[in-house]
């Protein structure tokens, strides 16, 4: 963009010279004219250098074809301008050779500039088509990833809310993005109680979902051996510390008995509500941050 602006400025200054009367000092007119023209042509050759620099990068077939066509078109333009400048002062014939038709198509003569510009237009259209096709392929792959992520996420919540005698359960799961890592599970215990675990994984997307699956696998393994919510959170915290991926999980574990008694333990999770009021339970440190944490009930 800078080179284009400078080139436009030099060409404008060169054209502005025609607005003045140089009949008394023709040499100065020629000097200024030569200076502006040489600078403009130099910048045109700088465009050639930029195209050559592009070849140092790893280009696909479409980009390489576009670079070759742009190089040829820019080189023909620069050589033509240089040859035209020679006609003005040295009577060189390079410009006339460049302007001469190279072939005839359907009775229409085609010169080097027309051919190179046409090839560059074709290369641009081909590169645009390739880019659009690659974007469609990426979109298809991304949609497949999201479908896979949704399948992962479905493992974080029960297929259906189980029934607990004497209780009515409802659940709503609305992730902020297409995929989230939050989870909840309900386990029936041998003593007739029910263990409800709700977890909130830090971060969003497929990474959070995978961490939620890892945490949920540990919860399922611990639910059979841990006698209380605090013991379950203690064991789950040790498993999350072993993962050591820099994230954390807030978690609330509630053990509810058929007679209405409830034992709760929280690892940095928002407290539950009873009749519209927040229950006064300890917050605790989220899982996966510090080892050897003992959670209270």
Q: In DSSP terms, counting alpha (H) and pi (I) runs of 4 or more, how many helices?
A: 7
- Secondary-structure element sequence? HHHHEEHEEHHEEEE
Strand content: 5-15%
The total strand number stands at: 8
Strand order of the largest sheet: 3-4-5-6
Q: What is the approximate shape?
A: elongated
- Which structural class should the secondary elements be placed in? alpha+beta
As a whole number of angstroms, the C-alpha radius of gyration is 37 Å
Mean model confidence by pLDDT? 77
Report on this structure.
The protein is 53% helix and 14% strand. The longest helix has 43 residues, at 112-154. With 297 residues, it is an alpha+beta fold. It contains 7 helices and 8 strands. The protein has helices at residues 2-16, 26-54, 61-89, 94-99, 112-154, 205-223, 229-243; strands spanning 101-105, 108-111, 183-188, 194-201, 249-256, 262-267, 273-274, 277-278. The strands form 3 sheets. A 4-stranded antiparallel beta sheet has the order 3-4-5-6, with helices on one face. A two-stranded antiparallel sheet has the order 1-2. The protein has a two-stranded antiparallel sheet with strand order 7-8. The mean pLDDT is 77. The chain is elongated. The chain starts with a helix and ends in a 19-residue tail after the last strand.
């Amino acid at each position: 963009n800078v080179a284009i602006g400078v080139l436009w400025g030099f060409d404008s200054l060169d054209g502005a010279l025609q607005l003045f009367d140089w009949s008394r000092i023709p040499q100065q007119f020629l000097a200024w004219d030569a200076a502006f023209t040489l600078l403009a042509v130099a910048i045109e050759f700088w465009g050639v250098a930029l195209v050559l620099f592009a070849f140092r990068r790893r280009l696909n077939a479409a980009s390489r074809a576009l670079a070759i066509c742009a190089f040829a078109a820019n080189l023909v333009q620069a050589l033509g301008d240089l040859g035209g400048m020679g006609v003005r002062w040295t009577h060189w014939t390079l410009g006339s050779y460049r302007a001469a038709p190279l072939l005839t198509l359907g009775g229409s003569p085609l010169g080097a500039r027309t051919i190179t510009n046409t090839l560059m237009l074709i290369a641009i259209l081909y590169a645009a088509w390739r880019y659009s096709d690659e974007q469609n392929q990426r979109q298809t792959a991304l949609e497949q990833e999201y479908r896979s992520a949704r399948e992962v996420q479905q493992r974080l919540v029960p297929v259906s809310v189980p029934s607990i005698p004497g209780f009515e359960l409802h659940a709503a799961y609305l992730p902020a993005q297409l995929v989230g890592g939050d989870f909840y599970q309900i386990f029936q215990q041998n003593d007739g109680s029910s263990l409800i675990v709700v977890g909130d994984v830090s971060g969003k997307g497929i990474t959070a979902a995978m961490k939620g699956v890892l945490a949920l696998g540990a919860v399922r393994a611990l639910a059979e051996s841990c006698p209380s919510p605090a013991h379950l959170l203690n064991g789950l915290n040790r498993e999350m510390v072993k993962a050591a991926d820099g994230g954390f999980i807030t978690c609330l574990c509630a053990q509810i008995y058929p007679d209405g008694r409830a034992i709760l333990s929280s690892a940095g999770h928002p407290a539950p509500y009873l009749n519209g009021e927040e229950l006064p339970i300890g917050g605790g440190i989220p899982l996966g941050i510090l080892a050897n944490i003992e959670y209270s009930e």
